[in-house]
Design brief:
It contains 7 helices and 15 strands. By secondary structure, it is of the alpha+beta class.
């Protein structure tokens, strides 16, 4: 599947029914378009099975609650919608996007309690998020934007509005020839990339930022479990930027990124080493079991 995302063949599940791809539209006065009242999930299917599918569906429901609305479809209905979309489009290996939002209704100001909540699920073929970085190592810039304090945003929601500074950071990074950007948090600690969590290796032990002001990704949780199964010490802690010089290996985790080694962050270089390669390869095997 190629071309603009609004001009493709296929089916999208929308508000309880499968409809032609090009007809999956919303009104210009949809509340989410104006006030970011939208949550979403990015998921990958491998061989027709979505990895940690139910966990994603449960997080979608929680994210909606964090930003003050309820999704009027049950976990079981969301699971069926995703399966129906894969089947309708004949997809086995695919990226799956579930999204829920406040639609157009009686309210068109900041408040939107009277507007209907809508939901859609789409799926498409999507390769490696960072191209050939799995073998060469991704190159990252350091963002000028910081992840905000949890007192200012619902930081544990996968909500559309929270990605505004991520888009800006990634655009700035790509303009410099980088794949992505590393973001610090409001205190100056290392946080995450624009759409992926980050891990570092030092002397055979793993260090990863404590997710106290950003999303604790499902892939992040899976990889921590894999490391602990290998009896590798994992430190979830606050990491200062000046520590980057002391780390030997680095990788990113996320549904889209999967496990992608990092070769460079600004002026800091990392080896695409044995542990990074092992975790990346083992994750690829795990999701296809």
């Amino acid at each position: 599947m190629a071309g603009a995302y609004d001009d493709r063949d296929g089916k999208i599940w929308m508000d309880g029914a499968l409809i032609p791809w090009r007809e999956a539209n919303v009104h210009i006065l949809t509340h989410a378009m104006h006030y970011a009242s939208s949550v979403f999930e990015g998921e990958r299917a491998y061989g027709g099975r979505i990895f940690r599918s139910r966990d994603h569906s449960e997080r979608l429901k929680r994210s909606a609650n964090y930003i003050d609305f309820d999704i009027p479809w049950s976990i079981e209905q969301i699971e069926k919608a995703k399966a129906d979309v894969l089947a309708a489009n004949g997809l086995k290996d695919a990226y799956v996007r579930a999204v829920a939002w406040r639609g157009a209704g009686e309210d068109m100001g900041v408040a939107s309690a009277r507007n209907p909540v809508r939901m859609a699920v789409a799926a498409w073929e999507w390769g490696a998020y960072y191209g050939d970085a799995k073998t060469k190592g991704a190159r990252l810039d350091i963002s000028a934007w910081k992840r905000p304090s949890p007192e200012t945003i619902p930081c544990h929601a996968k909500a559309a509005g929270l990605y505004m500074i991520c888009t800006m950071s990634k655009h700035a990074a790509e303009a410099k020839g980088c794949s992505d950007a590393l973001m610090m948090d409001y205190r100056g600690y290392v946080a995450e990339a624009t759409g992926a969590n980050i891990f570092f290796v030092k002397d055979g032990e793993v260090h990863t930022p404590k997710p106290d002001c950003f999303l604790n990704g499902l892939t992040r949780q899976t990889v921590i479990g894999m490391l602990k199964d290998r009896q590798i010490k994992v430190y979830e802690r606050h990491i200062m930027p000046e520590e980057l010089e002391s780390f030997q290996q680095c990788w990113l985790t996320g549904t889209a990124a999967e496990v992608t080694p990092v070769g460079q962050i600004a002026d800091y270089n990392f080896e695409v080493g044995a542990l990074a390669r092992d975790i990346s390869n083992s994750y690829e095997k795990l999701v296809r079991e």
